[in-house]
Design goal:
Layout (H helix, E strand, L loop, with lengths): L12 E2 L4 E5 L4 E4 L2 E2 L7 E6 L6 E3 L5 E4 L16 E9 L5 E11 L6 E2 L13 E4 L2 E2 L6 E6 L7 E3 L5 E4 L20 E6 L1
Parallel strand pairs: 2-9
Antiparallel strand pairs: 1-4, 3-7, 5-8, 6-7, 8-9, 10-12, 11-15, 13-16, 14-15
């Protein structure tokens, strides 16, 4: 008696966890992972879920991404609770498929402060006041200002709390003391939130 064992297509599975947390303002969520006992090539898709229209997936690589950057303060998922619900599918090359539910939870992330003052000031000679820099933070955190390495950094000081930029010595129009002696002083300022 001879018994021949023949291959039967075994279904693939998705091995990615069913809950993924990401910080707001990041588009790429996760690269889905799957296994197939027959080692067939796998392709991934979004097959359903109440928030399916808000994300996309690369079928070959399995990279899941938001179509628009998620904003923790303004969620657009169906329940507006920052939990995006999807059903994912993995398919092998022989017609086998498997499904998995996934929740993508968007968590609050630190948003960068933004300057909303001019980046160019025109001031009269013989005075030390150069200009007032102003930055705001989307989360309302306090801002600290500091000078960064720049061509004319050594000629200025900045108030770390107010953003008031001043010359250390009053500039003289007839005798420009900036690095390239053209009367245009270049300085870089950084605003940092808490």
């Amino acid at each position: 008696l001879e018994i021949e064992v023949v291959n039967v297509n075994e279904l693939p599975t998705i091995t990615t966890p069913t809950l993924i947390e990401i910080a707001e303002n990041i588009s790429q969520v996760v690269k889905l992972q799957g296994i197939d006992p027959d080692q067939d090539p796998l392709s991934f898709s979004i097959s359903g879920g109440e928030d399916a229209a808000l994300l996309a997936i690369d079928a070959g690589s399995g990279m899941l991404s938001f179509l628009s950057l998620p904003d923790y303060e303004n969620p657009v998922d169906l329940n507006q609770d920052n939990n995006y619900q999807l059903t994912l599918s993995v398919n092998d090359s022989q017609g086998g498929s498997a499904h998995s539910n996934l929740t993508v939870r968007v968590i609050d992330g630190n948003e960068l402060p933004q300057f909303n003052s001019n980046s160019r000031f025109s001031v009269a000679e013989n005075q030390t006041e150069a200009g007032q820099l102003l930055a705001t933070d989307p989360e309302g955190e306090w801002i600290r200002y500091q000078l960064l390495d720049s061509p004319d950094q050594g000629l200025f000081e900045i108030d770390a709390q107010s953003g008031q930029l001043q010359f250390l010595t009053s500039p003289d129009y007839e005798r420009a003391s900036d690095s390239d002696a053209n009367g245009i002083y270049e300085v870089s300022v950084q605003a940092t939130d808490q």
